Amino acid sequence: GSVTSFIVQYMKINWDLLGELTLGIFSVINAGSLFLMYLTTNIWACYTSYLVFKACYMFLITVATFQIAVTLSVERYALVFGFNNFMALLIQTILTAVVVDSRGLGLDIATQFLIYGSYFAVIAGIFFIRSICTLLSRKCK
Description:
141 residues, mainly alpha, 2 domains, 80% helix, 0% strand, globular, Folate_carrier, transmembrane, Thiamine transporter 2, membrane, transmembrane helix
């Protein structure tokens, strides 16, 4: 994960134009990794899938943080990133309470991979829709 985060600084990509598309592609890879962990019983495939997932996830976090940071003034960093972390923890807590906790659905491990893979697939769809809108608006200009 740290290697992929480090590599981002050397990538020559127009993040304003292709940022959401990149986030969508890596979200699809994450969803695929989680779906593979759901479908397989091979421990090595699961370990490999987890490594791919973690590397892509760290890349996603780095790119998303960069995308947000370029549009902010320095005075607003703490407010925006504090709020983003709060919302991420809130969503994580809700998902954990619903999916994992025995008072919620209390799903088995394999089904949890299916739920989280679906979550990343929905996020990928949102990024792809946003990237199509961005690309079309740039083309129309």
